[in-house]
Design goal:
The chain is α/β, with parallel strands linked by helices. Among the domains are: 1-10 and 323-433 and 676-730, Rossmann fold; 435-572, 3-Layer(aba) Sandwich (Rossmann fold), CATH 3.40.50.
Amino acid sequence: MGLCKKDRDKIRSVKIACPSRLSARLFDLRPWKVSCSLTSALSPRILVLALAYLAVVNCSAPPISSPPASSSAAKPEAVLEGLLPAPQTDPTEQEVVTHAFDNDDQLIVADNPWELLERSKVVTEPEAPALLIRAINAFIHQGENFTARSTVEMLMAYSLTLEQDFSLQIIHARLAEAAGEYTRAIKLLRALDYQQTQNIETKKQALSVLAKAQIALGHLLDATAVLLDIDLLTGDIPGNTERLENQQKILQLLRSMDALQVSLLRGSLFNPHLDGWLALADTLETTTLTYIDVDLEHWRLTYPDHPAQTQLLAQYAGLGERDEYQQIALLLPLTSSYGTVAGAFYDGFMQAHSNNIALKPPLVVLYDVGEEPYLSSFYYQVAVNEGADFVVGPLGRQAADALLSSRQPEITTLLIAEVPPENKADNLFGISLSPEKEARQIADKAFADGHRQATVFRSQSEWGGRVANAFVSQWELLGGSIVKNKSFPTDISDYTRIIQKFLGLNKSMARARLLEARIGANLKFTPRRNDDMDMLFLAANAAQSRLVVPQLRFFQAYNLPIYATSYVYSGNPNPALDADLDGLIFGDMKWMLEGVSRYKLKVAEKRALKADLKATPKTVPEETLTAENGDSSISEITVAQGSSGSLETTNQVRDEISDINNPEDDKPQESANKAHNPYQNSTLNRLYALGIQSYQIIPRLNLLRSKNLERFFGRTMAVSVDQNGSVVRHPVWAQFVSGLAEPIDSISGTATVQSPKGTTKQ
């Protein structure tokens, strides 16, 4: 890709003000976290209360020793056999733990589950179940799920009240959620009648577990409805961190939704504050760093009674005053075999730069590092010598390794590659389209969906092996099993024999032939695939998947969930080509899936125009009807623009950024938006989006790494930064339906948002 002088001279300055502390500190007030050395920070009033309390406790009873976490005495068998010392204190007594804060000293109560178990043995039967329920919840908080299940067996021996039975069902759901059985947890919590309890805290506990399970399964609309219910149930108490955390989740989910999901939510959910929440999410999505404080103030004036807490807005107020850089050096191999890829990234980066309306944007200086990766170190030093205080690049794993092997970064640097753990540094970050990261995220997703027996079908290539290995390692780390891990050649189109062997159909047919030989008669039978697998991970690109998936479906795998990376989606909405991929699940950036919404809008406009023309045939010239109303008008959108090419060509060099489909696979369609985004409906659109995102996060990298702000919802995707400095892309989960990549929320039954019975009216 050639760059004209005008493009090379796109040198404007980005001014992002200096960092400042957020106006409100957030504290984790979870009751099971204990602080041991905070008395010096306690106010005199709280210190006196605490000492008085300890004096009363010490006078009333001797201390009770509880087993350490790693002690054999902590086993459930010891409790059941009565090996622990009998309690001498009041059965309802709780341990009081002091926590000190800057301006808000509080007393927090924490249960000791082992003491509660012992106390339950010496109290009357009506009091024992309440103590056991408290003990079980405390065990789950501590991650002692086996002990919690053992204690549930003890609880089942008692006659429970309606309130206690309600709590028991929540416990079953919590244990299911902790075991990754999210569907079962949701089923248990949906079955509850929330009018059965008047205890607000119990309701909130149930709803919190329900929302967590829904988020794990990607049911974002349902989860948002539940979190809004929790917010209505939570009192407006100043400094209430529980409500703050819940509101953070609400806003995070709303900001991750596309226009279709927002429309579905607005149309199916009644909540008095929903409009305000949606307006706040939209404000944060569309505002600029320069005007974010003004826009937030305007939002508050528009919704003065909205329950969003001051601390929530304080996390975003002042975001315009982040890290400031005067000169950004951009190191890209424009005149190399990866020039097309580098050019897409450059165009996206400069597009975001041109949208920066700051009075003094930074200077952007482009350095073409050429074909040789080892030259990246030389150009890096040139950029530093010429005044750069931030570097973006080099692009790709080889160039990044060449740079890091010769020097440690002198200034803050954003590699367009992964950060090797051994090169971790405070001023080093990395962003890429790593397929290995996607594979690990797919393992997390499939495991959360309840699958445990996975099979892997991968393209016979270096890329396929890397992606499959990443999935397998993460899957086994989670506790899943790999049933099979097989490859398929990429130079054939008929996979009949390979798939029959892969699914075990050949053995089924062999058994049938053996039986026919024994009885001397022909039998009618249907070959059956192996039933020891409950999901399949496909490591393939779009062209390969279009061949493999329908053949898998034909050979008895029609009911086997298939997961894949974003490389199965070409970026060009094309129902004619992708209809055979229906049911396949993958994750992609928000930017890529927006093309489907544009496609649907165009089709709807064509159909509306066709209906209008049919309604008034006499007023429209015949030639106009032929041009505008014919099938060819719609087919221009649906007919493929070419599907030749292969991922293997791009994978010849071991470089993450080159792990994309060959740009010749799907050429961009001509559209009104092509001038704005020349890569629309193309696989290179991902690189263009990566360039946009890279520019947007430059002033926020240190903030994201410190976790003061967990995720940044950019124009193209949601990202966070791990402690290694790598930018983590958080995908939108999608599924092919009628040949189109649809966000799972819009097709999984969440068009009618579900809320538990007896909470708030939907």
